[in-house]
Structure formats: structure tokens, C-alpha cells
Write a structure and sequence with these properties.
globular, T-fold, alpha+beta, about 30% helix
Length: about 300
């Protein structure tokens, strides 16, 4: 059984191998999985003034209670920021706006949000006990590198019990169990220069894979700028055109695919090996570089 819906500017496909599960039970579980995307979008979207995130960002120097749907991905994003000394930083939102990445995919409305020019993740304080967000100064939080992965993980949790399933959100996905043939899921990585082609195929089960690429969203006025922007330099790195990370959870794979893209070959390799996960990165010359796994010859 397979169903498709649109959330978070992404086509979300959910496929399940029913096994002994009835059709009604399967449909109910799939709807709960889709609900995870709906709720995370309502909590974490930077593009809607009505989202919990954007409402919370309107208050500075005062604690704001936030739900677990916002608290958990924000907490993970801040941990990533600390881990990378700010190379990964969720306060990059205003920089994204200035580069033109501020248009809601459904309404077409543009976001223009007050923010100080000099901000960092250190200006965000989370209280673990009270579940509150405190901002030292006006800033725009962007959770684009964790929210989709978080939604995928929540959706995957709703699908446990099937013989197999896949949650695919625009190429970022989690696969559980086995496919229709009883084997691991075969997952293709998109060719950066040929949208309808696959550059490499992996076999995965009970794992996530997420990809960050420079080929999907670029600044219309400056082709050197794409939607992955270094918060320190305010520019887009271009050592890679694509970075795919395989990890036990989608939020982890999501965050680390962006991080490896930001860090480049040397530091990206170091961080992947330190975390004992795997990355497949593609250079502008379309060579695949594999970190943390077996060597790939192409």
C-alpha cells in the first residue's frame, strides 16, 4: 500500500508491506504517520508567521513555553551547533531570508523578520526542566536541517509493526524491515546534473538516509548561492554538489548531511568517522567520495 501527500514543501510518500495487517489498520497507521509531518510543520516552519517557531521568535529576553514538537528538534540543532563550533547554526534564518529563501511554498507569501545582524546559537537558551525558549536578541531560527528528519522519525515510529515500510520525504527517508521481495530496500541517490537519473544505489534496512544538495534551490540573482549557507561566511560552500548521510535516525542523517556539506572534504570526513556513520558525497566533477563505509569505484 502506498500513499502520497504534500508537507513542508516536499512530496511525502509512505509505502508499507501489510503482511497480516488489515487494510483499515494500515490506512489508520499511515494517516497517523502523515499527521507527524503536519504537526512538525505547524511547530517548526520558518515560512509561516502562524507556526509555533515564528510566534516564539517574536519574544526576546523572556522565556516562552514551547511544545516537544519544537523543543526536541531545536535542542538537537543547538547540540549540532555546539559540536561544530557554529559551522552548523540554526540562527542562520535571517541570512537565508536575505538571500531570497523566504517564500512559503503554498501561499507564495514572503517572510520579512526583524533580526540583529550579529547573532549565533549562543543567543538561544533552552530550559530543559520548564521546556522554554529564551532569545537574547531578535533572531530568526531555521530548523530546515533537522525538522524534516524529525518528522520522518516520528512517522516511522507510527509504522512499526509492518513487515516493511518506507517514509520518503523528497529523497530524505527511513526504511524499515523488508521490501516486497523480502529483501532490503534498494534506494537510489539522485544524479545532481540529471534529475531523472540515479547516480548510485544502496541497499538499506532499518536505517535513514538524507541528502543535502546544491542543485535544487539556488538564488535567482546569484547562482553561487544555494540554500545551504555557512552562517559565519554568509556564503554557500561548493566543495560538494551532494552529500548523503546514512544513520540510525533521520534527524541525525538530516543534520549531518548539511554539516558535511558545510565542512567540506577534510573536516567532513573527520566528523563522519568520529560519529561512526557513513556519507556519500559527490564533487562538482561528479565523483563519489565515500566516508565511513566501503570504497566506491565509479
Amino acid at each position: 500500500m502506498k500513499k502520497t501527500k504534500l508537507f513542508m514543501d516536499t512530496v511525502v510518500d509512505i509505502q508499507v508491506i501489510q503482511g497480516s495487517t488489515t487494510r483499515k489498520e494500515a490506512e489508520e497507521k499511515i494517516e497517523r504517520a502523515f499527521d507527524a509531518f503536519r504537526m512538525v510543520e505547524q511547530a517548526c516552519s520558518r515560512f509561516s508567521p502562524e507556526s509555533e517557531l515564528m510566534k516564539a521568535c517574536q519574544t526576546t529576553q523572556s522565556p516562552v513555553p514551547i511544545s516537544p514538537l519544537l523543543f526536541e528538534p531545536l535542542k538537537f540543532a543547538l547540540e549540532m551547533a555546539k559540536f561544530t563550533n557554529g559551522e552548523f547554526d540554526p540562527t542562520v534564518g535571517k541570512v537565508m531570508e536575505k538571500h531570497g529563501f523566504n517564500r512559503h511554498y503554498l501561499t507564495g507569501a514572503y517572510m520579512e523578520t526583524p533580526s540583529n545582524d550579529s547573532v549565533s546559537y549562543l543567543d538561544i537558551v533552552l530550559d530543559e526542566q520548564c521546556h522554554t525558549l529564551y532569545l537574547n536578541k531578535p533572531l530568526v531560527i531555521d530548523l530546515g536541517a533537522v525538522a524534516k528528519g524529525f518528522a520522518i522519525d516520528l512517522a516511522a515510529n507510527e509504522l512499526k509493526g509492518f513487515e516493511g515500510f518506507i517514509v520518503n520525504a523528497g529523497g530524505d527517508l527511513f526504511v524499515g524491515g523488508v521490501d516486497e521481495s523480502g529483501g532490503p530496500w534498494r534506494i537510489g541517490i539522485q544524479h545532481p546534473a540529471k534529475k531523472e537519473h540515479i547516480i548510485h544505489v544502496l541497499e538499506l534496512s532499518n536505517q535513514a538516509i538524507c541528502t543535502s544538495g546544491s542543485y535544487e534551490r539556488r538564488n535567482a540573482n546569484n547562482p553561487k548561492i544555494h540554500h545551504i549557507i555557512n552562517p559565519k561566511t554568509k556564503e554557500s560552500p561548493n566543495d560538494w554538489v551532494s552529500c548523503s548521510v546514512i544513520a540510525p535516525f533521520a534527524m541525525m542523517a538530516d543534520a549531518f548531511s548539511t554539516t558535511v556539506f558545510l565542512l567540506g572534504r577534510k573536516d567532513g570526513k573527520k566528523i563522519i568517522e568520529e560519529m561512526d556513520i557513513e556519507a556519500l558525497c559527490i564533487t562538482p566533477e561528479l565523483q563519489i567520495v565515500n566516508f565511513g563505509g566501503n570504497k566506491i569505484d565509479i
